[in-house]
TrEMBL record:
Highest taxon in the source lineage: Bacteria
Gene Ontology biological process terms, A to Z: xenobiotic detoxification by transmembrane export across the plasma membrane
Entry-linked Pfam families: MFS_1 (PF07690)
Membrane topology: Multi-pass membrane protein
Transmembrane region(s): 43-60, 72-90, 96-117, 129-153, 159-177, 208-232, 244-262, 274-294, 300-318, 338-358, 364-384
Name assigned to this protein: Bcr/CflA family efflux transporter
Single Gene Ontology MF annotation: sodium:proton antiporter activity
InterPro entries from the UniProt entry: Efflux_drug-R_Bcr/CmlA, MFS, MFS_dom, MFS_trans_sf
Span of domain Major facilitator superfamily (MFS) profile: 2-388
Keyword terms, alphabetized: Cell inner membrane, Cell membrane, Membrane, Transmembrane, Transmembrane helix, Transport
């Protein structure tokens, strides 16, 4: 994969983290602007997750039928317009609806991103590419809350969405002029009418589903943290809004470093082999996090250590589970990528909403949901290994 292509795909990967993390420090300000509370503002985050989940189902078949570029350009255009609508929102209901539309546009990059990687990479190369793209997913959350905090102080929360519109416009230009079409020419265009059937067959394929759910449930743990951290950091432990990004960024730094370490591990291990260990370690770190939260420490620092471990281990789970799920689906990379993304963000939407619903003035709703996600991800990985062993045994008998 060329550096230019990697940078463009990295920018497309940043749409999600930026649209989510950039406005997190603004939750209290948005709540004040609309005379509500942070828990109701969290609904705009849940709406974004739901939009990401539903939108990907449409982009997958379109990317397999018309190529990778046309759906991507449409999605970037929709994201740009919706970002402007967010900035002009006169009410919380308007903001929630605009965030939903923004997600419908932004998810195009997620589907096409994974499909492009699958188009041009082998499974091991794909895992390495996903690890490199995780660098963007890690760096963006480090910079985004910091930038969002300063934008909030300098021009109000509306400036955040104006920036997102400009960012999308720049990458729309780059995609139009610099991103080549990667849909293999030898593959016959898939029929849109067959999309439901292909989704149905994937849902019945245990190996794909267990790997997709491993990553999806693990990612939901990340979004439980994203949804709950503004309250836990700013309101519960008194972190100033402009400093929120530094605390958030420490955990993102662990994510970045682990993602690059994963690339090195892949030189000697397959993605499937790495998942055996990393999912168990991730589960252990989430259990430790809830154990610390139950003690209700008087300061934030005791929580930051297991949180750092959770985020770092996520970077060892997500790229490998994605590569395992997409392996063997090169002929329908768009549909497989879309279904995997839909599962991930549907689960993330439910989990992030539960963090707000279970709000009780402590860190336990956030940490408890992260722990459930850790246990769930490890369980799915275990089931995926059993399916793999059963398939290998069946092949030996033939």
């Amino acid at each position: 994969m060329t550096l230019r292509l990697l940078l463009i795909l990295g920018g497309l990967s940043a749409f999600g983290p930026l649209a989510i993390d950039l406005y997190l420090p603004a939750f209290p300000a948005i709540a004040q602007s609309f005379a509500t509370d942070s828990e109701h503002v969290q609904l705009s985050l849940s709406a974004y997750f739901i939009g990401l989940a539903l939108g990907q189902l449409f982009y997958g078949p379109l990317a397999d039928r018309f190529g990778r570029r046309p759906p991507l350009l449409f999605g970037i255009g929709l994201f740009t317009v919706a970002s402007v609508a967010c900035a002009l929102a006169p009410s919380l209901e308007w903001l929630i609806a605009a965030r939903f539309a923004q997600a419908l546009g932004g998810c195009a990059g997620m589907v096409v991103n994974r499909a492009v990687v699958r188009d041009i990479c082998t499974p091991i190369e794909a895992a390495r590419a996903f690890s490199q793209l995780m660098l963007v997913m890690g760096v963006a959350p480090i910079l985004a809350p910091l930038a969002g905090g300063w934008m909030l102080l300098l021009g109000g929360w509306q400036v955040i969405f104006v920036f997102l519109a400009i960012f999308a416009g720049v990458f729309g230009f780059l995609v139009f002029f610099r991103l080549p079409e990667t849909l293999p020419a030898h593959l016959p265009p898939s029929r849109l009418s067959s999309a439901l059937g292909r989704y149905g067959r994937l849902l019945k394929e245990p190996q794909f589903m267990f790997h997709a759910l491993t990553g999806g449930i693990a990612m939901a743990g990340m979004f439980a943290y994203i949804a709950g951290s503004p309250f836990v950091f700013i309101e519960l432990y008194g972190v100033p809004v402009e400093h929120y990004g530094w605390f958030f960024g420490m955990n993102s730094a662990g994510f970045v470093l682990a993602a690059q370490f994963n690339s090195r591990l892949l030189r000697k291990r397959t993605p499937l082999q790495l998942l055996k260990v990393t999912t168990l370690l991730f589960m252990g770190s989430t259990i430790a996090l809830s154990a610390v939260a139950l003690l209700e420490p008087p300061s934030l620092w005791p929580l930051l250590v297991p949180l750092f471990c959770c985020m770092a281990l996520l970077a060892l789970v997500l790229p490998n589970s994605s590569a395992c799920a997409l392996a063997g689906h090169g002929h329908q990379a768009g549909v497989a990528s879309a279904l995997m993304g839909t599962l991930q963000f549907a689960i993330a939407g439910v989990v992030s909403a539960l963090v707000g619903t279970l709000h009780n003035g402590t860190a336990l709703p956030m940490t408890g949901m992260i722990t459930l996600c850790g246990i769930g991800a490890a369980t799915m990985a275990l089931l995926a290994r059993r399916v793999e062993r059963a398939q290998q045994a069946a092949l030996q008998l033939r």
